[in-house]
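hiii, so i know i said id send this last week but things got crazy w the move. better late than never?? heres the sequnce for the chain we talked about at the cafe, plus the structure i predicted for it. fair warning i was half asleep when i ran it
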Amino acid sequence: MAIITVSRGSFSGGKMLAEAVARKLGYRCIDRDQIIQKAAAWGVSQDDLRTAIEKPPSFFGQSAQTKYVYLAFIQAALTEEVRSGKGVYHGLGGHLLLRKGPHVLRTRIIAPMEFRIAQVQNRCQYTRKEAIEYIEKVDRDRRRWTKFLYEVDWTDASLYDLVLNLEQMSWQEACDVVCAASQLKCFEFTAASQKAIDDLALASHVKASLAMHPATASLQFEVEADGGSVAVRGDIVSPDQARQVVQIARAVPGVAALKLGELQLVAHI
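okay and structure toks below
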């Protein structure tokens, strides 16, 4: 019952593939809008969240902090949503947010440009020229987004376990391939898999809590969890801020022990 992520270019058939895989396997199909709605429970608007994960970095004047804060909420929402397994997520960066592991089948679907153009023209009533411009802009923005956040190329095949090309196969046939791959032993959702996703969910919850709190919202932290033991690393500007980090992290349900590893005291300018 692996977690399956589907990455795709705009109008490449990814939504159809994800929905078909979910139906065939009896899994839940989760899209970006559902995650944004869940993430908004942290107290930020859905519009701001959507903008933060769609717009290229120049939209925020290269504000890494803004991206960090909103991404913390998105990751916390996504990991919580899929932690029981049996989920298919199609949305921007799912394979990066959930990280690699045997419990995540990272799938990418690509399609010929003519297929994508026809999809855009049919759904959006664009001219052929408008459809091409739209596809190129969205692909360009997504490439910049992943480069900015993760320092990786969104199209790099090594980021995926399975890359499917719709040039010769239909999306229904692609569905059969993904379903067959999900049943392989290497993607079996074991007790170790459950622990890995539970640890990521807890770490993401702690990071989101730190990003939400006014005392630590301007800072960035690396958070790791191992069972109920959580390690927080990052820069702080005062000893009082370190105490606040402890209070905020310990208040998160599931945190049994906390280690402030390499919290660096930096000059406040």
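btw The two ends are 50 Å apart (CA to CA). thought thatd interest u
miss u guys!!
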